[in-house]
Amino acid sequence: MSTLKINNLQVEIEGKKILKGVNLVVNSGEVHAIMGPNGTGKSTLASALMGHPKYEVTEGTAILDDENLLEMEVDERARSGLFLAMQYPAEVPGVTNSDFMRQALKAVSGKDVSLIDFIFKYEKNAEDLKMRKDLPHRYLNEGFSGGERKRNEILQLKTLKPKIAILDEIDSGLDVDALKIVGNNVNDMISPEFGCILITHYQRILDYIEPTHVHIMIDGKIVLTGGKELITKIDTNGYEWVKEELGIDF
Ligand code: ADP
Ligand code: MG
Ligand code: MG
């Protein structure tokens, strides 16, 4: 079993404080949904944990299985078992999707990966995600539709098999069929060895990936934690009631 422990995490971007003390404990086997209005720091949390240089951690800790993530380089964080599916996956012209994936797998596992084994697994995963056949040979994310990029992030997830994954709005830009495929593929991964943080605005992805915990983030902090009942409440009432209930202004 793995545990990610985030304690009083405070993060600045270009001198502006975005995260104001985030506390969160995620065990493998668990699914933590983080919901919240736009611009409250959800993606900042994801980027800071992965070590994006623009995000300066000014206080707090993030520990994955007794290893201090904040002292690690980006590639070390990935090797330690953390994974981020990005809200806006970037294009990487000149690098084919399958080459990228094989290199990433080599880097993360620290082992040489035989081409035959790799292709076999890659094709199986691509098929599970009902991806187009030409995808492995195309440059990473180049000309991919929004939905194809999201599926490709999940293909990486299935290939790399991290301990804890942060999935940042993997539901945005997906039609209902794609949403179901992506949701079911992530859900199938949940095990005593794998847990995830699911950042989302919408209830619909949570129909396929059932959260064990639901957190509401407002203005750089997790202000409320509960179970699935929070999702319906947010879906029908937005976030205004949170403000009233907690007596906070944002
Ligand atoms: P969310 O994911 O909850 O919508 P973000 O974490 O993306 O919110 O953004 C939180 C705040 O930080 C916003 O005010 C946003 O404009 C700012 N921010 C995020 N990333 C950057 C960046 N790379 N440069 C400058 N400001 C940023
Ligand atoms: Mg957003
Ligand atoms: Mg975001």
Automatic annotation (TrEMBL):
SUPFAM superfamilies the record matches: P-loop containing nucleoside triphosphate hydrolases
Chain ranges of the ABC transporter domain: 4-244
Superkingdom assignment: Bacteria
SMART domains the record matches: AAA (SM00382)
Keywords: ATP-binding, Nucleotide-binding
Database matches in Gene3D superfamilies: P-loop containing nucleotide triphosphate hydrolases
InterPro entries per UniProt: AAA+_ATPase, ABC_transporter-like_ATP-bd, FeS-cluster_ATPase_SufC, P-loop_NTPase
Database matches in CDD domains: ABC_FeS_Assembly (cd03217)
GO MF terms, alphabetically ordered: ATP binding; ATP hydrolysis activity
Coiled-coil annotated spans: none
Family: Belongs to the ABC transporter superfamily. Ycf16 family.
Protein's name according to its UniProt entry: Cobalt transporter ATP-binding subunit
Organism for this UniProt entry: Haploplasma axanthum (Acholeplasma axanthum)
Gene label: cbiO_2
